[in-house]
Amino acid sequence: xxxxxxxxxxxxxxxxxxxxxxxxxxxxxxxxxxxxxxxxxxxxxxxxxxxxxxxxxxxxxxxxxxxxxxxxxxxxxxxxxxxxxxxxxxxxxxxxxxxxxxxxxxxxxxxxxxxxxxxxxxxxxxxxxxxxxxxxxxxxxxxxxxxxxxxxxxxxxxxxxxxxxxxxxxxxxxxx
Length: 176
Fold this sequence. Notes:
Blueprint: E1 2-8, H1 21-30, E2 34-38, E3 44-49, H2 53-68, E4 74-78, H3 79-87, E5 99-103, E6 123-127, E7 130-134, E8 153-156, H4 157-174
């Protein structure tokens, strides 16, 4: 058994991507995942499974599409990957709420910053299947556009740290 984190793309508490977290937990439980827990209202779920990551992703995406009536992208990471993301943060001195991690299903292009539109004071660093973005003036003020933003889903470092802790807790309890 392993613990995984699923990060849903374009899911929120209102608007077009509305998905209550109770419904997300139910969808995951019906898919056969155990110890299902959500974190904040933006499509973050931690659960246990024996299935391969690719199977989990396709199963969850299929069930979400049935529930939502449209495709919902899902990024899957295990507890070790979540810890690694925190360790790879290229902006350790920045406030965690001003650093965002864009999760992708593929390796981020090395020259991703060259594709940026409306770049102001933001700093962009690709690392594996994630892109770290520092927003010194705050995310709410930024008008940054990256093509990868249409493929992935972003979380600030506070959320990444909480999900990493939740997944590590679960992983430790499974190994006992």
